[in-house]
Amino acid sequence: SLVSHCTKNNTYNYKYTFAVEIALVCKDDLVILPKKLNTALGNLGPLVLCTRVTNSILFTNPQTLQDRYLDAEQYWRWSLKALMNSRQLTEFIVLDIDVDWRKTTHGGRCAYADVMVAREKDYGVNDNVFHTRTHLGNLLQPGDTVLGYDMLNANLVDPNLDSYPPHVLMDVVLVRKSYKEQRARKRVRKGKRRNFKLKRLDAEEEEEVTRKKVSRNNVVDPEKEMEEFMDELEEDHDMRARINLYKAATGQTPSVTETDEEDEVPKVPLEELLDDMTLGDVAKAKRNHPDVDMET
Description:
15 strands
C-alpha cells in the first residue's frame, strides 16, 4: 500500500505486507509419525525429535540415533503437528548413565546411552525413577539436570497414537542438557553480560504486544524469551551458524578461577563473532582511507 508520495521529487513510500504460513513443528518438539510416513522414512519412529528447522526439517530418533530430513513438500502433504512442545519440558536429574561410544553420530556430538533419571520435583521425595535411552550420552553425567518430556504423566491427544502398541512408546524422552544452575551462578558474578550481541530490524508493534504477548493463554515475557533464545544459540552450533553474531564489550577478562568454573557452560567462541561496526566507524574509516570503497 502507498504510505506517502512526494510530487516535487517524484518519490513514493510503500508499505509491503506478506502472508506467510509457518510450519507448526519447531525445534525440540516431539512428534509421532503417521504409520505410512514412518514406513516411508525407513521405520525412523514412531517417536522423533525435531532437531533442526531450515528449508527442511530434521527428525531424530533418540533411541536409535537415526535421523531423516523431511522437505517442505512432504511436510505439507502430511501436515505434521507436535505431540508435545518445548513449553512442556520437565526437569530430570541423571542418576546413572551407561554410554556406548561405539554408537555416535554427527562427529561425536551425539552418543547412544542407557540412562536412569528421576523428576527433579521427586528427587529425594519418593523412589520414582525412569529408565530410558537417549542421544545425549556425550553430554550427560550423574548429577546433571536434563530437560525431557514426561509422557507417562502427560495428557496426550493424537490420532496416530492408536496406530502403535504402547510398548514402543517411551515413558520419558530426553531432549537437551540444562545449564540453568551454572548460568545462574555465572550471572550472579557477572550479570547478564555475554561476549556477543544480536542486531534486529526495527519492527512496528503495538504497545501491548511490545511489552507482553499472550500464547496459549500463558503470559510470556519477551525479555525472558530473548534470554532463552540467546542461551540456545550458545548451546547449538548449527543454529548460530546461520545467524550473524557480533562482538560485545564484556569488560575485564575473567580470572583463572572463574574461567575454570565456566568451562562447562557453552559459549560462543570469539572466532565465530563479527566485529561490530557503526555508522561512525564507517565515516572514520572513509576519512582515514579515502581511496577504499567502504560499500563493498
